[in-house]
Amino acid sequence: MVKDFRKNVRFEKVGRITAESICVFQGIIQDISLQGCRVRFPAVINPDPEKDYEIVLNFLERTAPESLILLARIQWFEAYADSTEIGFYFQHSPDSKKLTSYIEKLCKEEQECLCPSL
Question: SS3 for 69?
């Protein structure tokens, strides 16, 4: 879990993102929250921040949803020598309820880690 001055708590979860209209390669999820995620793509790209994108998130942990189909808008992006990092903001999507359930589960797990039963 990443705590900073954000509205929603971000969780560092391992997973992949498919966004074919942005990049032919899958991206790696750096962190996720109820409102968005940070992703690194293994290519230098120049996405359109005014466009909405359909993205598919797949997590590696067994207790996560198999996949989430979400509509997202780019909040920011930064290109590096061999990759591009993108911050997505989630729009209302077909799997918004599954995302909410997953984030609530992560919050509950985090609370249990912080305050284990005696």
Answer: strand
Query: CA separation (Å) from 46 to 4, 41, 74, 101, 116?
Result: 28, 11, 11, 32, 45
Put simply, whether the predicted model's pTM sits higher than 0.90 gets the answer: no
Judge contact between 69 and 4, C-beta under 8 A.
Answer: no
Task: Give the DSSP per-residue string, 70-108.
Answer: EEEEEEEEEE-SS-EEEEEEEPS-TTHHHHHHHHHHHHH
Q: What is the pLDDT of residues 93-107, one digit of tens each?
A: 999 999 999 999 988
Task: Let me know: does 47 contact 86? Beta carbons within 8 Å.
Answer: yes
Residues forming beta bridges with residue 17, ordered by sequence position: 27, 57
